[in-house]
Structures are given as C-alpha cells and as structure tokens.
Amino acid sequence: MASAATAHRFPTSFLFSPRSTGHFTYFLLSLQIQPKRSNFNLLNTCPLSHLSTNLIIAMWTGNNVTRPFRVAGAAALAPAIDKGLKRIQKYLNFPSLVYAFALLVTIVSGTCFTIIGLLILSRWGK
C-alpha cells in the first residue's frame, strides 16, 4: 500500500514526453503530405491553412517551454488559494470547500464574460 506522500505524487512525465512530440510531428506531417491517389491537399482545405508551419512550431514550442513555469506557479499559488477558499468557506458557513470554489469560479467567469460582452457590444454599432 502506498504511503500518503507517494499516493498523490504529481506526474511530470507529460512535460516533454516523446509521445506529445510524436503527436505534434504527426500533426505537421498531416498538414504537409498530399495523398497520391487524389488531388486533395489537406494544407489548402484546413481552416488553419493561412497559418504558416513556423507559427505553429513557435506556438507549440512556447507552450512546452513555459509549461514548467506554469506548473511551478500553480504549485506556488496553491497554498494561498487554499487559505482563501477556507476563509470564504468559514465566512459564508459553507459545508465544504467545493461551494467556496464554485462561488469563486462563478465570480471570475462572470467577470470575464461581462468584460468580453462589453468589448463586443462596444464595437457592435460601428
């Protein structure tokens, strides 16, 4: 039986795994290869055909280069978020942290959707 310390070990194998590199390579090849048996060219019919391969490579690289920093930032902020959720739970007398988390998600998503809606409406009449 695993101890409490090893039961919740964070998996780090996904950070730069060969499997994700293989999927990315397959994606790029699927955009570049033209099947010999037809005139169908996936690169010209793809909704992202206007994007160059270099841009896709840069986006993928940027995502994988910043991933360790994003994971470290989430791990560093976790105690503060947990403390804040416990304060909300105690202040509003919620039975569990799930309710405090749901309240926080509702407030943040509502704020984001309101800002996006105001930005869309501000350009609507022009």
Helices, by number, come to: 5
Question: Which percent band covers the strand fraction?
Answer: under 5%
What is the molecular shape? flat
Structural class based on helices, strands and sheet pairing: mainly alpha
User: What's the SSE pattern?
Assistant: HHHHH
Cα-to-Cα separation, first versus last residue: 65 Å
Largest sheet: none
> Overall mean pLDDT score?
75
Rg measurement, Å: 23 Å
Q: Which residues sit in consecutive blocks of at least 5 with pLDDT less than 50?
A: 1-16
Helix share bin: over 70%
Q: Give the tally of β-strands.
A: 0
Task: Describe the secondary structure blueprint for this structure.
Elements: H1 4-7, H2 18-32, H3 42-45, H4 53-92, H5 97-124
Helix pairs in contact: 4-5
Keywords: Membrane, Transmembrane, Transmembrane helix
Transmembrane segments: 97-121
Overview of the structural elements:
- The structure is a single chain.
- With 126 residues, this protein is mainly alpha-helical.
- It has a domain at 73-126.
- It is built from 5 helices and no strands.
- Helix 4 packs across helix 5 (97-124).
- The longest helix has 40 residues, at 53-92.
Short description:
Keywords: Membrane, Transmembrane, Transmembrane helix. The chain is mainly α.
State the main characteristics.
membrane; flat; transmembrane helix; transmembrane; 5 helices
